[in-house]
Amino acid sequence: MSIEQNMIEVEHLAKAYGTFEALRDVSFQVKRGEILGFLGPNGAGKTSTMRILTGFMPPSAGTARVAGYDVFAQSLEARRRIGYLPETVPLYTEMTVYDYLDFCARLRGVADPFHAIERVMEMTDIGERAETIIGKLSKGFRQRVGIAQALVHNPDVLILDEPTIGLDPKQIIEVRKMIKELGKEHTIILSTHILPEVSQTCTRVLIINNGTIVAEDSPERLASGDGRQQLVHLQVAKPAPDIAAELEKVKGVLAVQKTAADVFEIETTPDVDHRAEIAACAVQRGWGVLEMRPVRLSLEDVFLKLTTKEEI
Amino acid sequence: MKNVWTIASRELRAFAVSPMPYVVSALFLVVIGYFFAIILITSQEATLRNTFSNMMFVLLLLAPALTMRLLAEEQRLGTIELLLTAPVRDWQVVLGKWLGSFIAFAGAIILPTLFYPLVLKFIGNPDMLPMATGYVGMLLFGGGFLAVGIFTSALTQNQVIAYFAGFAILLLLFVAEPATSIAGTGPLGATISYIAIQRHYDSFFRGVIDSIDVVYGLSLIAIPLILATLVLQTRRWG
After folding, report:
1. With an 8 Å Cβ cutoff, are B13 and A99 in contact?
2. Min distance B10 CA to chain A CA atoms (Å)
3. For chain B, how far is it from start to end, CA to CA, in angstroms?
4. Which of A56, A195, A257, B193 could be stapled to A51 by a disulfide with Cβ–Cβ 3.0 to 4.6 Å?
5. For chain B, which residues make up each domain, given as ranges?
6. Which pLDDT does position A165 carry in this prediction?
7. pLDDT over 50 at A126, yes or no
8. Among A residues 23-62, those touching chain B with beta carbons less than 8 Å apart
C-alpha cells in the first residue's frame, strides 16, 4: 500500500428510509493518516454515513470502500480493517473490562488477544480497571473501554461517532488528546456537533447538512470564510444615508451590510487588504471613523451560515 | 465455527451471572420432581415416558424465558451494532446465540433430571432404551423450543413480547393435536397432524427413533434460526 492511498473512498452515497432521504449523493475521500471531522446538526446524516462505512447497513445507492474493500460486496474484509465506536457505546455491562475486550478481540480474529488487550488498555489508560464490571464504571471510563474495543484489532481505520458526548470537560480533553495521538497511526473519522472539537483535533472538516455535504476543507481555511472573502467591521460617528452606497464604490468591496444605524459590515475580496481604501473614503466624506477592524469568522459562524440557510 | 463459539461462550458467561437460568431451572425441577413422584407412586412403573411428556409441557412455558433476552436486549441496548459490524456473518451470530442457550439448557435443566433414571434404576428394573432415546428427544425438541424463542427475540426489542410471541408459537404446535381429530384426512388434516408436536416427541419417549420425527425436530431448530437470520438481515436495510 502506498502512503498516498485513500483509505476511505465514498462515491455518490445515498440512503433512504422509506421516503425520507437521510443521505443524498455524498462523496468524499480520506487519506491515510488524516483525521476527518464530520460536522453537522443532529439528524444531518452523520450516523447514517458511519453505519454504511462500518457495514452495519447497506447504502441505497453509491459505493463506499475502506482500505480498498467495498463495504457491501466485501463486507467482512472491510469490517476487519475498521474499528467502530457507535454513538451508544456497545458494552455488555455484566462483563469485566478484560472479558469484554477479550470477546471483542476474538470476534475480530485477533491472533494474540492477551497482548492486544494489554496494548489497548495501556493506550486508553484503563489497565487498573481490567477486572472491574463494566456496569460499575463511570461514563468516562466506559467511553474509554468503547475506544479500546475499537482499537483491539489494530484497525487501519477508526470510526468514532460522537466520541466525547456526555463526558465532563476534563474527560473531553483527555479523549481529544487520545484521538490526536491515535491519528498518527490510524486514519480516523469522527463525528461531532461540538465545533471546538473539530478545530482542535481534525486535519480536515466535512460539514454535512440535510444529507448532503455543504463544505469541506481544513478547519483554518473554513474559518477564514473558505478563502473567498474578508469582512471589515466599520463604525462611524456621523452616519449619513448614502454610506452604504458610497462604500460599495470603493475598489475591492463586494457588498456592504448595515447592521446598526452607524455600524457596517463590509465584504471585500480576500487577495489584498482594502482597509486603507475604506478608511480613506470614510475620512474624505467626513463620517468620523470610530472603529474599524477585520472580522474573523469563527467556525461557529461558518457552520451556522452553512447549515441554517433559510428556505427560499 | 470459531466465531459461533466466541459468541456462544460469551452467552454462556452471561447466563452464568444472570438470575434467569437459575430461576427457570429451579422451577422446572420442582414441578418435574413433583410429577415424577406422583406418577411413580400411582403407576408403580419404572418408566419416564409420562415424565418426559410433562417436561415438554413445562418447557413450553419456560424455554422462551431462557431465550427472550438473547437478541431483544442486544437490539435495545445497541450492542447489536458491535456484533453486526464485526467480521462475523449474521447466521453465525444467530447460531452462536442458540448454541449458548442450548448448552445452558442442557446443563442447567436437562442434566439435573438424570437423577430420575438413577432413582428408577435403584428401586426397579427399568427399560433403559426408551430413557436414552427420550433424552435424545428432550434435547432435540428443547433445542427447537430455544430456536423458536431466538426467532421471536430477533423480532422485537422488548423481552416480554419476545417471551409471549415464542410461547404463542410453541402453543400452536401443542394445540394442533386436538384439532387433528376434526380436521379429517385431506391435505389440511395431514398438515395439521404433521404440525402437532406431541406425536413426534412421544415416539422418542417410547424408545422409537423415526426419521420423520428426527426431521421434524431438526426443522424446529433450523427454520426459526434461518428466519431469525433473515430478520437481522432485513433490519440492516433500515
Report:
1. yes
2. 7
3. 28
4. A56
5. 2-237
6. 81
7. yes
8. 51, 54-58
Interface size A-B, in CB pairs within 8 Å, comes to 69
Asked if A90's CB is within 8 angstroms of B81's CB, the reply is yes
Lowest mean pLDDT among A129-138, A173-182, B197-206: A173-182
Series of mean pLDDT values for 10-residue runs along chain B (238 residues): 94 94 95 94 90 95 96 95 95 97 96 94 91 96 98 97 97 90 82 91 94 96 98 87
Q: Give the closest-approach CA distance of B101 to chain A in angstroms.
A: 17
> Chain B window 74-103: which residues touch A at a Cβ cutoff of 8 Å?
77-89
Chain B contact probe: residue of A92, A134, A136, A189 with most B CBs at under 10 A: A92
Whether chain B has a CB inside 8 Å of the CB on A135: the answer is no
Which amino acid is residue B91, in one-letter code?
A: W
A58 contact residues in B (CB cutoff 8 A): 236-237
Interchain contact A86–B (C-beta under 8 A): yes
Q: Judging by DSSP bridges, how do beta strands A204-209 and A212-217 pair with one another? A: antiparallel
Distance (Å) from the alpha carbon of A80 to chain B's nearest alpha carbon: 6
Q: pTM for the full model?
A: 0.85
Question: Would you say residue A2 has pLDDT above 50?
Answer: no
Q: How far is A84 from chain B (nearest CA, A)?
A: 8
Cβ contact, residue pair A103, B85, below 8 Å: no
Letter for the amino acid at A15? K
Question: What is the mean pLDDT of the segment spanning A25-43?
Answer: 89
Report the residue from B17, B18, B86 with minimal CB separation from A107.
B86
Confidence band (pLDDT; 50, 70, 90) for A168?
confident
Inter-helix orientation angle B2-16/A97-107, to 10°:
160
What's the per-residue H, E or C state across chain A? CCCCCEEEEEEEEEEEECCEEEEEEEEEEEECCCEEEEECCCCCCHHHHHHHHCCCCCCCEEEEEECCEECCCCHHHHHHCEEEECCCCCCCCCCEHHHHHHHHHHHCCCCCHHHHHHHHHHHCCCHHHCCCEHHHCCHHHHHHHHHHHHHCCCCCEEEEECCCCCCCHHHHHHHHHHHHHHCCCCEEEEEECCHHHHHHHCCEEEEEECCEEEEEECHHHHHCHHHCCEEEEEEECCCCCCHHHHHHCCCCEEEEEEEECCEEEEEECCCCCCHHHHHHHHHHHCCCEEEEEEECCCHHHHHHHHHCCCCC
